[in-house]
Every structure is written in C-alpha cells, then in structure tokens.
Amino acid sequence: MRLIGNILDIKQNRENGNKDIELHISRVNYITQKKDGRFFQPFEYEDELETPLVITGDRLARIDYKHQEEGDFEFKVYDLEAEEYVLNEDKQLSLTLTYDFDADLHILTSLYYEINISNEEFEQLKWERAQARKQQKKRGRR
C-alpha cells in the first residue's frame, strides 16, 4: 500500500481535480453472502495482488461520519464507464492516517479495500487463484 498526494483534499463530492492523488493497493478483500442453514453468513477472500491496483483521487468521494475516530476515513468508489463516473455500491475503501508532527506529514498506516461480489463470482475467483498457485508451485519445483 502506498499513497501519493494529499488524500485530505478529497471531499464529499467526487472531483476531476483530484487525479494527481494515487492509492496503490496490494490487498483486496472480496466479500459474499452465503446461506448457512436459515441465515446468510458473510464469507471473505483476501487476495494479495502481484502488481498493485492503482485508484486515483478522481474516482473517490469521502464519506463523512460524525462518530469516526480521528485519522479514519471511508470513501465511496466510482468506476469510469464510457467517459462517465458511476458510483459502485459494491466497492468500499477505508484507510487510517497518522500525523507526524516532527515531519509535518500524514502517514498511511492501514488500508482496507473491499469488493462485494456474487457467490458465483466468489467461487470462480477462489478457483482461479488456487489454479494459479498450483501453476506457480509447479514452476518453482523445476
């Protein structure tokens, strides 16, 4: 995880002027709901990415909660579809910043990127990642 630019410039509305802000995300959490008996239970799969996913600031809008801890921020994520920004309700970004008074600098300490997907997509994703790990182990033995 890496942050380039001032994430505090992002306000509650999405703005094109925040293109210079970049978040490099190395871990994505995929969430789905499966029926376990009578009730639905959340299941999650954490995917470590080989090449970081880059989200620019023009695809983010801050969610402003009154009861958030200091330094905790949550963002709505927009997708760029045919030259138009569309809010994606299935994606959520949360991060924590700490402030270093000596360096007068905000430091990114944690980042959580979550994507809600269907059960079929969840099973397909897990199967694909398992196959990729098997292939990588075969290559490592040779």
Compact summary:
The protein is α+β, with helices and mostly antiparallel strands. The protein has one helix and seven strands, in the order βββββββα. The longest helix is centred in the C-terminal third of the chain and has 23 residues.
Report on the structure:
There is one protein chain. With 142 residues, this protein is an alpha+beta fold. It has one domain (2-117). 16% of the residues lie in helices and 56% in strands. The longest helix has 23 residues, at 119-141. The chain starts with a strand and ends with a helix. The mean pLDDT is 87.
Extended strand count: 7
Low-pLDDT regions: none
The chain-level structural class is alpha+beta
Distance N to C terminus? 32 Å
Query: What profile does the largest beta sheet have?
Result: 7 strands, mixed
Provide mean pLDDT, rounded.
87
Total of helices = 1
Gross morphology: globular
Beta fraction of the residues? over 45%
User: From N to C, what is the helix and strand string?
Assistant: EEEEEEEH
Domains counted in the coordinates: how many? Answer: 1
| Share of helix, binned | 10-25%
Alpha-carbon Rg, integer: 18 Å
